[in-house]
Amino acid sequence: MSKYRIRIFSSFGESANCKGIYERLCEADLIDNYGPEKEIYITNDDDYTHVILMNTAMPTNLKVSKDRVVGLAFEPPVFLRSDSNF
User: Tens digits of per-residue pLDDT, 15-50?
Assistant: First the structure.
């Protein structure tokens, strides 16, 4: 079974705070495949296999390849597209 250990890096606060917020908002305790010994888990340790970047630059010391990183930027849409016709 594949295991996804997700680490959150954010300019809004510490990884531990983000982990707690996401677990609460997503009601993680009700998700069957979520937990430290299950398929998916948000971790605060360096055992991560995937990364979520929230409004922060790519850390230089990531331990995973770029294809396992999701970046979320809170930029105005005009800066995220090459054309401004939307």
Answer: 889 999 999 999 999 999 999 999 999 999 999 999
Coil, strand or helix: which one is 10?
strand
Q: Which residues contact 68 (CB under 8 A, 6 or more apart)?
A: 49, 50, 51
pLDDT for position 26: 94
Question: Per-residue b/e over 23-35, b at no fewer than 16 CB within 10 Å?
Answer: eeeeebeeeeebe
Is the Cβ–Cβ distance between 7 and 54 less than 8 Å?
no
51, with CB counted inside 10 A (0-12, 13-18, 19+), is: buried
Scan for tokens 């908002």, then name that residue.
25
Read off the pTM: 0.78
